[in-house]
Backbone:
DNA sequence: AGATTATATATCATAGTGATATATTTGTCA
DNA sequence: TGACAAATATATCACTATGATATATAATCT
């Protein structure tokens, strides 16, 4: 029933912490947020214009090293809008795992193909886990600096927990598939 | 780089097991597949027409209890198309968890609000876990009947593993947030 | 000097959602 | 047995978001 577009809320959320350019927002999406949310340029730039026209953000031109950029800040109205959205219960948590999909139809391709999908998945998750453990370390060291770090840490730890569970499952799944191969 | 639309592949995957109507496909999506993939009527019906026009599926009218329905079957070309897609490595596994998003920006709303988001998440996951454990039980009993059940079981066990990890995280996250509240 | 990578903004065709409309049949329960 | 709700079944549409691409400048590497 909520009328808030997610992309509006994510961008306002990021702007509630610091002023950012569209490019910087995309970088946050691809690093910090990518474990549970994504966004593309095709939604970021139009949304920024839209937020400005609705008075939820303001833009001002900046120059850094001769390069010009457009820096966006959240307004008081934007902060109110964000808080309203944060109050409302989460509407949807969903996974979209192509690996699982290929595994579900795995009988069509056979066990060895399924195992190679699991191995590729495992490699990817191991890499992500290494990154997240590094992030956790840094966040723990900065916990008392700023209250926001506590919440960042929480989401990083969610990723660590689930990725470890994934890795356990990978081993069990491979064992089960190998048993069938004999 | 792969040109296959996911929705084409999911539907062909389902049709590779049994003939289905659009309505039945939607039901599979909302029950068996919902833990790792979703699809709406708005993509299912147009895709079915499209698959027929490309020769990857055929439709035939059926009647059951006086009610008419359109039943779709996969063709040999459709099966080939599916197998090609299954061979290719998975391109994207992504989570889109609004709960995590609200938690990431949690400082704006405060600890008690964050805790109620976690509690709602926990309740939802507990319900899903109960369902998945029931499904696992049934699948285990039918393991020797049909090879496809092995792959279904694998994906159910993925869900069980991860949901248990989520529940562990919920407790730890709440503990951490309560500590800050004192 | 030349090439590559990073910064920065923007647009567009296409994919997919969520809501809604429509109609029939089955089940419930008073 | 009549009324009403729920399930079955198909379809469409406005809107949201992606992924690819285009363009241009600054920094870095060799």
Residues:
């Amino acid at each position: 029933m909520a009328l808030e577009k997610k992309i509006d809320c994510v961008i306002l959320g990021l702007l509630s912490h610091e002023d950012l350019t569209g490019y910087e927002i995309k970088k946050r999406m691809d690093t910090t947020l990518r474990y549970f949310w994504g966004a593309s340029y095709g939604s970021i730039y139009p949304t920024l214009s839209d937020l400005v026209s609705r008075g939820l953000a303001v833009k001002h031109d900046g120059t850094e090293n001769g390069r010009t950029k457009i820096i966006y800040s959240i307004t008081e109205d934007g902060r109110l809008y964000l808080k309203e959205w944060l109050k409302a219960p989460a509407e949807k948590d969903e996974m979209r795992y192509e690996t699982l999909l290929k595994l579900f139809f795995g009988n069509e391709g056979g066990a060895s193909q399924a195992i190679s999908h699991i191995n590729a998945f495992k490699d990817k998750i191991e890499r992500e886990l290494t990154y997240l453990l590094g992030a956790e370390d840094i966040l723990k060291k900065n916990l008392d600096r700023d209250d926001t770090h506590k919440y960042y840490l929480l989401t990083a730890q969610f990723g660590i927990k689930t990725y470890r569970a994934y890795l356990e499952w990978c081993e069990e799944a491979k064992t089960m598939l190998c048993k069938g191969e004999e």
